[in-house]
Fold each of these.
Amino acid sequence: MPAIVLALVVGVLFYLGYRYYSNYLARKVYALDASAATPAHTMSDGVDFVPTNKHVLFGHHFTSIAGAAPIVGPAIAVFWGWGPALLWVVAGTIFAAGVHDFGALVVSVRHKARSIGTLANEVINKRARALFLLIIFFLLTLVNAVFAVVIANLFVANPEAVLPMLLQIPLAIGIGQYVYRTRSAALVPTLIGVVLLYCSILLGQLWPITLGFAAEDGFFTDRNIWVILLFAYTFVASRIPVWVLLQPRDYINSHQLFIALGVIVLGVTVGMDKIVAPAINDTPEGSPSWFPLLFVTIACGAISGFHSLVSSGTTSKQLDKETDARYVGYFGAVGEGSLALGSILACTAGVVATTADWNAVYADFASASDGATGNFVAGVANFASNLGVSASLATVFAAIVVISFAATTMDTGVRLQRYIVQEIAEVAGARKLSRSATFGSLVAVLVPLAMALIPGGGKDGFTFGVLWQLFGTTNQLTAGLALAVIAVWVTKQRRNPTAVLIPLVFLVVMTVWALIVNLQEFLNQQEWVLFPLDLIILVLAIWLIVEAAIALRKAWQGAAEQDESTVR
Amino acid sequence: MTKGGLPARLRAAWRRLERGHDQLFVARWRQGARREARRQQDTLRALVMLESLGVDNPVAYETLELIPYLVADLHEWHQRMGQRGFGDPEVCC
């Protein structure tokens, strides 16, 4: 089947989801009011609280939520065949991510644009704030660990991409400084900057950078040294103001996102590549089962708790009208689902030409997960070559796109983790540590560094996919907490919370199930690093279930008592 | 037809494109720069106004002359800091 057919079918389903289901949510569940004054107006300060056109705000929201995660998850999950991965992406986007992203935005707007962590404290109870901090701590630890591995693997596989990535830093800073100081329109300098970045691929091909540590068995491999260098870089980057380095790089990346999406759409359309992967893969004996692990392997792209942080952190402060929340929140989730669809197409239609070759690439779970990002890069490179770009140039281009996304996520992740560590220290009463940025940065760097350096693959270590699934569980728990906040709020408003409760229950059950399955596996394999980590996350999941149940019961009782007093 | 014909229309279209690009991609980074500038200004203001906040300021004499420059947007600042009024007695507002 041509990949474009699948893309069109999913496009129609996403359209129907937006047209009808989000309309139902807007009217019956969230009861949007076009005349209500939003915090962007009531608290307008010209900096954070600024009423913004809904199309512009959608662009801001989408570029904030989209990154490497909706690429890597589906690239691993197609190991079970494109059918389960695609079904989860489509159903998850329409019935879970849309509800979650849209709902988090609405609840935040109705509570003075407060963040989801503060809302958990207000809407559920004070313990929920501690729970939120702990979930986010593990989420960020695993995010930083997995993306360090992703970047290091791509640097090892594509040494031609190293120099362009290094050159991107001064290039981004230069564009930022030029636009800021001259106050001129940014379009032309940005276009020049992006063209220069892609021209630097030629330099990268002339001077590929390898570290020369080839010993595969020892500690000093290229991969491990890249991981150490990346964390050294993020340690420094997290200590300097965001506008010096992080923002200029993110600015370039927001353009790369649209360029990559354009290349995928055009490449698939022009090339008419066929899907060579099976709909359901006959996986080798001993492989992990797709049920329930699929639902934690694909988090971003189906539903991701990280989006609630963006929805309630920045987007809610800029919403011009309450009714814009439907377009910005729900359609933002659809955009993320489209990126996941692009990843599925790249890894099932673009990566290789025949089913036999695909079976070789996705021979077992270890090779499927370790090679996932490389497979996406190869797939996008093939789509780009459909447009006339040379294959070698296209491969480095695709690698740069993924590395840029992953690097920005790491930059942000380490910085956020620093704040979280300081906040946890404050909650724990360690005031001296809570005030030390160095302590926060060290914890933010050393813990995920240790996770990333633990051997991956082979009989002595665990595969990258298992670490990825643990990251997925923490992402899903964050989404669970946000959905619990939304469900409690909807119940307190005496509206039907079923549309929120269904994804909440499904997500929590699948996550706990996946954690238990992996826990048994870690115990059998005597994985004494992953076992306690999985156990801690499982405890957090159970804690979340208890808090959500208590809060929902109270909300129901409160609503029922209110109804009774109204009748009397 | 627009005065100037095709070149003028192309220039207008290019300017629209530049404005759209600016709003979509640049505005959020400019907002970040403003946020940083505000944070630094807030820190300076808090230091200069320490005594008004009830904290001893060992360099009050040296920072006294900065106060007139920081009074203009004092109202917006103390409201943002969660204080409805400012000073003792509450002279502002």
Amino acid sequence: MADLVCEHLNMTFTNPQTGSEVHALKDINFTLKKGELLSVLGPSGCGKTTLLNIVAGFLNATSGVVRLGDKIIDSPGVERGMVFQQGALFEWLPVSKNVDFGLRMKGMPADQRAALVEKWLDIVGLKGFGNTPTYQLSGGMQQRVALARCLVNDPEVILMDEPLGALDALTREKMQSLVLELWKETGKTIIIITHSVEEALLLGERLFVMAPRPGRIHKEYNLPFAERGLTESLRAIKQDKAFSKVREEILTMIWNMEEEIMGRV
Amino acid sequence: MFEWLSDNRASLAAVIIIALVVMFVASIVIGRRQADRTAKDAVFGDPERTRGGWYWAVCGVAALMLIWFYFSWGMGRAFFPSAANELCQVAKIEEVLSPIKAQLPIGSRYYKSTLLVSRNADQLNEVEQAFPAEAFSAEETAELNAIVAEIRKLIANSSNPANVKPELQEELHRIAGEIEGLSDELRKGYAGLSPTPEALAQPKWGVTRDEIPILPMTARGVMFDDVASKAGGVTDAFEKARNVIPANDEIIADVKARLDAIKVANETGSFEPRIAKLRDDYVKAVERIYRRLDDGTIFPADSLQTINDAIVGLDTAVDDAMGGLAWTKKLVLPGQGVVKSRTQCTEQGSARWLPKPTDVVATLLRLANPDVQGDGGYKGVPLLWWKWLPIADVVGFFVPDWIADVWPGEYSRHGADGSITPNFKDKLLAFARGDVNLGAIPVLDGHLWDSLFRVLVALFLGILLGVPLGLFMGVSKFFKSFFDPMIELYRPVPPLAWAPLILTIFGIQDDGKIFLLFMVAFAIMVISARTGASGTQLSKIRASHSLGASTGQILRHVILPNAMPEILTGVRIAIGVCWGTLVAAEMLAGTTGIGFIENIARTVSDYELIWVTILIMGVLGLVFDLMMRWVIAKVIPWRGKG
């Protein structure tokens, strides 16, 4: 287990037809210690997802390095698990086969796989759903499967790209608790990208607010709410004065950024 | 059992038709009652309204079957089984009298004499107008005009009733009298007449290939048959009658002599070639017309009036004598009724090309009968059966002969005493050639199996090669761009346009057809697999990368199952297209197969067999599609739910 380090990360997309360039990320630097929970927030098009894809190894940065411990990241790997907005489950497989996909690809024997699948389905609250086809599951349950599928591989870092974006409010709150629980139990380093300011505050020990054109880290916060969320009810935290204050501050910040994008200022 | 059903197919049809009528009426009653019930809670255009409604399906099927029974004369045969035989006897009268009718207004609007007079007069006028004045001297011109005038006189003489010889007048009178006699005979009715045992022993209507039994099987039929055979003499007498006039004989001799004189002048005189040709042509044209006038076929109109009237009277008598038969013909035998040709009576109209449903079933059962030595199968091959296939044949097909050649040693030679002792190398060669007894296995056989075999093998090969290539084309820029031009160039060509070439190269046996169908299936499978593969969601690919899957594993475990819906849809389309192409290819060339049967049936106008093959193909296509729907529902239940 090791720290995740980003150094002078730059990303430029070139349109192959016109040759015009878009500066998606500009000089991103941060170090994420093992076991830290980072949430990334920002208006559309600020490069959040690009940053995550680079860390995951799906994209290679134009310049700069991402390191996990001593290893320089240049391709996808099992040590960085990914959870997508829509689950990206394999709908032709039942729940258990989805969860042990990574283990099967590794060639792990069936009995070991079965034990692990059992364990993780229990943890995410899907005990007994092993043989259910995934297309019969609700959105929240599908995300639980995606989480289990990622965690069963025992990655060092978990990357979540708006994992709860498509869920209804109640399910979302339950899932937020689940994420915090998993964070506490496993002690994994987690990066969550989100659109929701509340979610970013609740699920972020650290919080980056990113700004667009070029994509950069605009402001960084260190927040107590995630730690508190392990013991207190999330709804109670949301009522908190301190919580409201930070929320309003960030909302105003993002509001202004959006206005700027639309050229109103 | 089958024989009995076959012989009594008319009665069987009657039972079926009554059942169909009951179903038709009952389904309408049920449907109306249901409609009353749902009318309150459903509005027009509400898709809920179209759910269910099996009774309308029953109604539709019954209506279709009834229409089929009606227009194929199945209904007529079911309830009036002797109608066709009787109509055949009536048709005999019609056939016998047709030469007389053709010369009278009743058969062809004008008297034949009127048409002859009009045509000859027209041609004489034409010849006169085209007279080449430069080619003839003044005297010759006058002479030729005189000849034409003489010829006109020939026509006039023939048309004049006063010139008719008394003998001819008597003969025409006698013929008219005989025709009236026939009418009288019909009016007398058929009491006391009865069919011959030979006639009664004939197969029933529709049982044989000749359809309608030709000898009269009812008393009424015997009456018509008698009249028809007597009418034969009348027709002969009428056809022999000639209007030969003494006055015309002199004119004919005179014209001949005068034309000969001019012909002699043509031959002896020295004319320049162009003039000589004009003279020759003109004389020939005149001669051609007058030659047609010396056979006495022009009669004065009045002289034939009595015969015309007698024929009209006979037609009325026939109609009267038919009685209910005429109504049967009008109501349940749509079309032109029955026509007698030289050797047989045939159904005319829709019944000619639309076989009766019961006959189609009988033909199907005969075709399906595996006893090819007897009446079953087609061209010595059953429709669908099995046979023993020697295993050695299969071995001989797959094991190449060169294996024996490369085995060390020599093939055995015949010894000094004329005996041959086979060594191992010889035995190996025999094995590779299939000249050994390894027992036999039962395999399917027959026209239908041959067709299915071709489709299935081609489909199997198409899937085996097309799906992997399609998957690679869906994920690799190189594969896509490298193979795209080849496939896209041959795919749009209609498969049948390839057929002549492919069949020439590979031969008309299975190889050629399988290759042709393989081309069809391959292109469809490549395109569907490619579409399916390239439609894989990026997030699924990324997820599997993150889960540690290798390229091959992603292809096998993610992209292939993800492309499954498109692949299976491709298979479904490929089956349909292959089936269609195969039948057409079998029609082009080959000695077995369902398309082959239809093609041969076409050349001998065996409509029943044509319809049977069409029905078999329709049902098989439906079965294929239902099977594929079932497979799709089983294999990819997640489709549309991902």
